[in-house]
Specification:
Blueprint lengths: L3 H12 L5 H8 L3 H13 L19 E9 L4 H7 L6 E6 L6 E7 L2 H11 L3 E7 L7
Antiparallel strand pairs: 1-3, 1-4, 2-3
Helix pairs in contact: 1-2, 2-3
Length: 138
Amino acid sequence: MVDKLDYKIIEVLSEDGRASYAEIGRKIGLSSSSVRERMQRLTDTGVIQKFSIELNHSLLGNHLKAFILIKLFPNNLRKFLSIVNQLEGVQNSHRITGSHNILMKVVLRDHLHLQSFLDQIMIYGDTTTYIILSEIEN
């Protein structure tokens, strides 16, 4: 069971995934060993599933972000699901309801890379692409 202190740990980690046990402990009023034990329990029980980093994709040469919807042709679902997350540039993918089957967020170099990416996936279904102009920050 997750309690108030666990939620506080999660909040601190959401703001700074590199925060040390001691830092988290100072912020929420626990010893670093208690924070470590709680984080281990949160990880072991699957509440915390992974630790990750956020990249500045532009500095890595990837200047185009887009959402791509795909309406798969009949009998292509399993095959597409088996390859979608291995395609270069796919940040995440989701099975969705509605007129399309899959929603992907991709980060690619430029419009030519997008064209090449679309050529790769169009054999599986019809696509609709939305280029991201900017991200709305809080």
